[in-house]
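Inputs:
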Amino acid sequence: MSVVFEKPKSLTDAVLHYCPGCTHGIIHRLVAEVIDELGIEGDTIGVAPVGCAVMAYNYFTCDFVQAAHGRAPAVATGVKRSDPSKIVFTYQGDGDLAAIGTAETVHSAARRENITVIFVNNAIYGMTGGQMAPTTLPGQVTQTSPYGRDVNTVGYPVKVCELLSNVDGAAYIERVAVNNVKNIKNAKKAIKKAFQNQMEGKGFSLIEVVSTCPTNWGMTPEKALEWVDEKMIPYYPLGVYKDIYAEEEAK
Amino acid sequence: MSEKVLMKGNEAIAEAAIQAGCHHYFGYPITPQTEVAAYMAKRMPKIGGTFLQAESEVSAINMVIGVASTGKRVMTSSSSPGVSLKAEGISYLAGCDLPAVVVNVQRGGPGLGGIQPSQSDYFQSTKGGGHGDYRNIVLAPASVQEMASLTVKAFDLADKYSMVSMILADGTMGQMMEPVSLDIGEVKTYDKPWALTGTKCEREHNIVNSLYLKPEELEVKNFERYEKYKAIEENEVMYEEYLMDDAEVCVVAFGITSRVAKNAINEARANGVKVGMIRPITLWPFPKKVLADAADKCKAFICVEMNMGQMIEDVELAIRCKKPVYLCNRVGGMIPSPEEVLAKINEVNENGGAF
Amino acid sequence: MSKTCKLLFAGFGGQGILFAGKFLAYKGLIEDKQVSWLPSYGPEMRGGTANCSVIISDEPIGSPIVDAPDVLIAMNLPSLEKYENAVVSGGKIFVDSTLIDKKVERDDVDVYYIPATQMAYDNNIKTLANMIITGKVLKEVEGFSLDNVDAALKKVVSARKIELLGVNETALKSGYDYAE
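Outputs:
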């Protein structure tokens, strides 16, 4: 009998704690497949965030360090500077990366730190039960924006890819989604490139993955996937925001 | 012994760290410790090490966590307001049982305070500073030579016990120059099987983590850590006794104030006053036993501190309040003069040990 | 020199106050003395007042802070006014008389007036008034001499400015030989 589908080698046997319908599982899998395909499992060190993915260290077979809220890029900087031969990635959510960790994000990009950042944007704080995130859409209802995000009082969402595309040091910035097969395939390509860039010493690569949170959005998983198309992607358009090497080649 | 050179205390810390095998340093400018960063910026590129000026103190301590998790020696330094910012990371280092050296060249506080020397971060350093139950090993140098030798010691203790060692200096110690020998002897290395070095697909993955969602597991972790702390309190206490053999009055002072106190004690001795000093070198573990013993012989204690009375609480606890403990202090960046300390010694000596 | 000599160099930033102090400390180190050097630090270093405490002793040094100097080197008026009364009775005060018109009012100290800044200007070594006045200190303070000047200068003049060794030595000697 031939095997047509199996768990990536770089994932452990631990059962994921994520809610039903959450897309973290897909993104974990994509990262693990890429690690497998690139053959870097034994040389990869992950940095876990604070948030829903805090226990990512239980799911990947590579070495892992768990960072304080928002500090993953700084911790990753230390790991990478300690041993540049290792492949170092962070896996962070929107509260972690785009609110409390904004400085670490921007400055690790500015330094062109040779790391890979997987940024999961689901427009909400999931782990703490559904509060307003830096990426919560205008008008979106959350526990701490119960009347909908009012941009006049709490300001506008932070568009991370657009922001980082203006940072000279950032090498590769792309936004992808995982709400349908086509998008998932693109997402994997982008994630793979972000790891390959690091292997080739090309510097800071960040992949923003537009994701879902059915539980805290108050939707069925299917509806949540639709909502990504209807609401998220129009505000957070997919695509390559920066690729300095492609730009150089084009010249 | 190697030739002595004149060095600032801050530079002595930096060079000693490099000699001790620290090839990764993350800092941020703040008076009066900036020379540490400047020295590292010059030296690290020449030895293939890392000097990185982080975007904040917070990032610097988290970069320290990154290097520490890979098992290599690493240091950061700052002064009081910057160390407050590092408190989060120090708590994580404690929770992950990671070794690292943190240097605090203290200045006056609270808030932005001033830039002149102070010892007002004693509580912050010895009692925690960040959240949770934990300790740092805290070493208090009183000369430029000790800035170097205790830095080497700090790296050794950090690795030996897998925890943070802190150098608690002050602006005077950081800025002054004295002759220093950098002949630090052999550097001991420790096995770190927990380090993140890549699994090479040959072992189970290592996880550096401070999260334990099951309270019974977190409790055990805390108990284990305190067993380690107990061993440190038994084995690693360091102090200096000065003219204590026949002392009736015992001065307790660390760092720069111990040097001021020495002048005053010499002067008092010349006038026939039986006074001596116990100088804690480790502020944690605190030299409780030698102080308790002194309480059986002396009639009173005087704590000379550049704060509103912080170490004095540990002295009172150590001697179980058997004898009165008086405070002789200046704050805000002011340094007590030998005359002020002498006056206090005379006053306490005359009034005896009456409560 | 008595067992312990406490010196206070004071002036404004840019006069080489810290450098002169460091030179004396290194000279002491070469001569197997205990030494300490403590600068003022902070914003005042950039153009404001600067001073440094230097202690040279046969015995271990307690406090490195010089509150009551045996020797005061004053290179501007505010420094003289601030520290004149701090000098111990029987101490010595060295005054750069080019920059300070005022005379020392105390009569229990020895005072030396050296037009160091003018001498530096005349000898085309404008930046070395500090070393000229230090030369006078070497002459007048018990225990100091021109011994080991060369070796000490080599320790404090940076390798990049090695050509300045000679002029520093000239400055020290001209101060040493200056007669009021």
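Remarks. The longest helix of chain A spans residues 181-199. Chain A has one domain: 24-250.
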